[in-house]
Amino acid sequence: AGSKSTSESAAMLRTVAVELTDLEGRCMALNVANQAAGNARADNEALKLQLHESEARFSAARAELNAASTTLAQMSSRQEASKQELAAAAARADAAEQRAET
């Protein structure tokens, strides 16, 4: 009976050893997955930072575009006023010429 008990104990120890090896493998796989998740979080943070930087550059470019658009509208308005002044001056010159001829 003692030898059967030893044999059963040995079988149980082998089973426990196999289970421990399996658990060790699972732990290693979990560690690898955890490390990958950590790397993914770091990548995500880096991408968030890049996104914020891109948004800031986009906002700055939009502000520049708006300023340029405002400047262009002002220049167009001044050009139109100059055309009107030129037309008025031409009309005055024509009127003066008419008076001079008569």
TrEMBL record:
Start and end residues of each stretch annotated as Disordered: 70-102
Feature: compositional bias, Low complexity: 84-93
Record lineage: Eukaryota, Haptista, Haptophyta, Prymnesiophyceae, Coccolithales
Record organism: Coccolithus braarudii
Protein name: Uncharacterized protein
